[in-house]
Amino acid sequence: MQEALEIFRDIIKYSIFFIAADKSEENTVRELISSCTEYIYLTKLSLISDTVKSDKIKYAEVCSIMTACNLDSSMHRFLILKSAKAACKSIGNYITASMFIKKMLIYEKEVIKYIRYIFNNLAVFEFQKSFRSSKARV
Amino acid sequence: MQTIEDNTRSIGKEINLNQMDVEEIDNRVRPSVPLKPIISLKNKEYHTNWVTHTEIRRVVQSNLDNILNQTDETADSGLGGLQIDSSTGFGFTLGEGSKKEETAVSKDKVEEQKKKIESKWDDEEDEDDDEEIKRIIEEKSKSVKNMNEGLTIKQDDHIYSQFERSSVPGIQLAIGNIRMTLNYLMSQLGIGSNLEQLKPIMKEVYMSSYSQIKLIPCLPVNEFLLRQTKNRLVMPQNGVSIQNMKKLFNVYYFKFYSI
Fold first, then answer.
1. Which of B96, B114, B149 is the last residue of a domain?
2. Is the pLDDT of residue A137 over 60?
């Protein structure tokens, strides 16, 4: 995570010296900077959560703050909501856990699509592996 | 030879040509002006008739001045042949009259300064002191010569002159005006402190904006990277591009799936 934090920071530093020719390029770089800032927040919070894992209440608090980050991918949001739900459930705070579950349902379809895509690819990869191994034997 | 013989036979006359005559004709075809060295010092590579890219790069005014300001032996022996014509094709011209006048004026100034320094100590009539001063002056002049002797100074490209006044810090950094980039960072983004974090990045960006791609041997090397945009504008290209930044971003973007 520490490496990720450094790299996201470096991207923002590099973007200072970017020479944009068009407005479209400028907008893309702006989007990249905004996404980088959000991921920096997330990495920082995840590093804090690793240190406070023994204290369950604090851990749940940090996890619930992590859900406030505006991340690009729906899968990332889903995973964070899932971890926050589990943390709240472990404490016994079922009200906030149910709130996280409601939010998770929004990303259900997209997540299912993603999982199906992964499974399909996995099947292809396994087939390729088996084909290569059979070739090697021959 | 064969064509001449055939022509003579067709006319009806026969002319016997000696090979010695032909050699004389060949010698006349060659350049009438023999190869003259510009400077008869260590730089024996520079010749007036041999015009190549490397010569143009090396023979710059500052480099010449250093050689011109050397001892009087050079003036007697080699400076008479200082002939650089404007046939280089890269805008380097050096006339005979004007440059000589300039060098003469600079030499006079140096001599006057030396005389002034020496005249201060005339009243005391101490030869030792004069010798010491002479030694100091000689040592200083030698050190300056040695500093500039091995250097190859390049003429500024027209690209630099185009982008010198741009207010984009990236362009200023690519050109090498680091002081200007820092000023623009302060004025545009308010970055005035903790600049040590940006040091390695600035180094990388500066180093990545130069290359040595030699396409045609007679043309100068494409050192400064440029790119053509959609509107057919030519912009300088840093090492910082959207693709590179996205690649960096995607390295840890996909690692977050394992949270």
1. B149
2. yes
One domain, residues A39 and A100: yes
Highest mean pLDDT among A12-16, A68-72, B121-125, B158-162: A12-16
Q: Which of A104-118, B50-64, B147-161, B174-188 has the highest average model confidence (pLDDT)? A: B174-188
Q: Tell me B210's DSSP state.
A: E
* CB pairs < 8 Å spanning A and B: 89
Distance CA A134, CA B54 (A): 60
- Residue B89's domain comprises 53-149
> Of A22, A42, A73, which has the smallest distance from its Cβ to B230's Cβ?
A22
More confident residue, A11 or B160: A11
pTM > 0.80: yes or no: no
Q: In terms of residue numbers, what domain contains A116?
A: 108-138
Q: Place B65 in a pLDDT band, splitting at 50, 70 and 90.
A: low
Interface test with A, best of B195, B240, B243 (most A CBs within 10 A): B240
CB B238, CB B203: distance < 8 Å = no
Whether residues A68 and A33 fall in one domain: yes
Tell me: do A37 and A47 sit in the same domain.
Answer: yes
Torsion of CA A60, A62, A66, A67, to 10 degrees: 30
Same domain, A82 and A126: no
The pLDDT assigned to B118 comes to: 64
Spell out which residues of chain B touch residue A15, defining contact as CB-CB under 8 Å: 240, 245
Alpha-carbon gap, residue B101 to A126, rounded angstroms: 83
Residue A42 with chain B: CB contacts under 8 Å = 256
Which of B2-11, B12-21, B95-104, B139-148 is the least confident region? B95-104
- What is the 3 state secondary structure string of A50-106? HHCCCCHHHHHHHHHHHCCCCCCCHHHHHHHHHHHHHHHHHHCCHHHHHHHHHHHHH
Length of chain A in terms of residues written: 138
User: How do the residues of chain A divide into helix, strand and coil, expressed in percent and rounded to 5?
Assistant: 85, 0, 15
CB B225 within 8 A of CB B209: yes
